Amino acid sequence: MPTIAYPVPRGAWRKAAANVKAAVSIPVVASNRINTPEVAEDILASGDADMVSMARPFLADPHFVKKVREGRAHEINTCIACNQACLDFIFSDRPASCLVNPRAGREMEFRDTPSETPKKVAIVGGGAAGMATAAEAARLGHAVTLFEAENRLGGQLNLARAAPGKHEFDETLRYYTAQMDRHGVTLRLGCRATADDLAGFDHVVIASGVTPRIPDIPGIDHPKVATYAEILCGAREAGQTVAIMGAGGIGHDVAEFLVTHPAEANENAAFFDTWGVDGQFRNAGALAGDPLAVVPAKRKVVMLQRKTSKVGQGLGISTGWILRNALRKHGVETLAGVVYQRIDDGGSTSFRTARQKLSPPIRSFSVRDRNPYGRWSRRLRPAAFPPR
Ligand SMILES: Cc1cc2nc3c(=O)[nH]c(=O)nc-3n(C[C@H](O)[C@H](O)[C@H](O)COP(=O)(O)OP(=O)(O)OC[C@H]3O[C@@H](n4cnc5c(N)ncnc54)[C@H](O)[C@@H]3O)c2cc1C
Ligand SMILES: Cc1cc2nc3c(=O)[nH]c(=O)nc-3n(C[C@H](O)[C@H](O)[C@H](O)COP(=O)(O)O)c2cc1C
Ligand code: SF4
């Protein structure tokens, strides 16, 4: 079962520490997924443990304690428990870093003194990349304006946060918003920047992200087809049986989103139930059943991929197994070696796979695939930051 990765709710294992504390007369430290001052304080105040331990939260923000002490907790860069750049790097023989704090492990490569030649900088796009660039450039003394077409910041983080367990991305959004505010970034929300808007700037950084690429398959415009963005933001409701075209990270997240009952995503009790943990920690090993037992799914989902390789092979080293098992528990089927021929009301006759026919009939579809080539490459030569 997961013990530290993002599906584990904050402070989920505190009662294990409390049980130890009740049985010994030496100080006890609670650990795992204690990533905010509030959770830490609550554990200490409740007496569940004498101390708290934080490992990854200090990779995400080495100034965690200082910020709390100075009343700037809202400026903490919070560990989102993704394991992507810490444990997964270690497991692939790379130095540990951090997804939300690229300085971690590379502290000497970043400059802290303000620029001697401040520039007027425009950032196009208010997703993670645009926000991080804007905050850093403004921190170095540049006059930064960030253009975001939507009325809110975040870009795809607003979709990612909908995936079960990934609500921690909210903290990343909160952190970068606070940083931009602190360093005086001018925000132009609801403004789709054009080349004319960008004329007066010394430098322009394009961080306009990606949009779903619609594959050229007969029937792709069938009313039952939806993009992952439409499904995740709630613009479209999926049917009771869904085929997902594409089984990468987003395909897996969409599958879990579709089969998971909302309460399962973040709640302690639901997490314990899903993974067969005795939430009261009464039994030996705190097991309350089979961690891989089947749990009820919200709907039937089949994931499809063209590649013949194992489905989910590209997922994170330390988290892929969790996602694959969670989907298996919810009865999600996977098919590799699929050739997409046609999408129509028949559903089941629409796909040919290397090994088997698709069954039962599929009633709705969610398409994923992304087009990394924005219009900008044709209209502007993206300006990189000048060497410092
Ligand atoms: C369900 C899901 C789960 C994910 N899970 C993970 C994960 O676990 N780990 C991970 O590392 N990544 C994950 N990702 C991917 C991650 O969210 C993206 O890589 C990241 O958010 C992209 O950030 P970005 O700033 O490059 O682009 P975007 O987030 O796409 O932002 C681009 C922004 O630019 C704006 N824009 C475009 N053109 C203009 C214009 N002309 N003027 C003004 N604004 C413009 C858009 O409105 C958008 O807000 C996930 C994505 C999804 C959808
Ligand atoms: C990069 C990295 C390396 C780790 N190495 C070890 C280790 O060698 N031995 C160990 O017992 N735990 C190790 N851990 C686990 C941590 O000590 C800690 O128990 C775990 O990260 C959960 O706490 P957290 O949510 O505060 O990060 C490591 C964690 C990370 C992120
Ligand atoms: S890489 Fe992810 S899990 Fe690791 S410290 Fe950074 S935010 Fe936390």
Record the SSE blueprint:
Elements lengths: L13 H10 L5 E2 L6 H10 L4 E2 L3 H5 L3 H6 L17 H5 L28 E5 L3 H12 L3 E6 L8 H4 L8 H14 L3 E4 L13 E4 L4 E2 L12 E3 H5 L8 E5 L3 H11 L2 H5 L1 H8 L24 E5 L15 H10 L3 E3 L2 E3 L10 E3 L10 E4 L2 E2 L4 H4 L9
Parallel strand pairs: 1-2, 3-4, 3-6, 4-5, 8-14, 9-10, 9-14, 10-11
Antiparallel strand pairs: 7-15, 12-13
Helix pairs in contact: 6-8, 10-13
Iron/sulfur cluster binds next to α3.
**How many β-strands, per DSSP?**
15
- What's the helical proportion of residues? 25-40%
Low-confidence stretches: 354-388
Which sequence of strands runs across the widest sheet? Answer: 8-14-9-10-11
Main sheet overview: 5 strands, parallel
Q: What does the overall shape look like?
A: flat
CATH superfamily heading of the domain at 213-260 and 297-369: FAD/NAD(P)-binding domain
Architecture of the domain at 213-260 and 297-369 in CATH? Answer: 3-Layer(bba) Sandwich
Number of helices: 14
> Over all CA atoms, what is the radius of gyration?
23 Å
Query: Which band does the percent of strand residues land in?
Result: 5-15%
CATH topology of the domain at 213-260 and 297-369: FAD/NAD(P)-binding domain
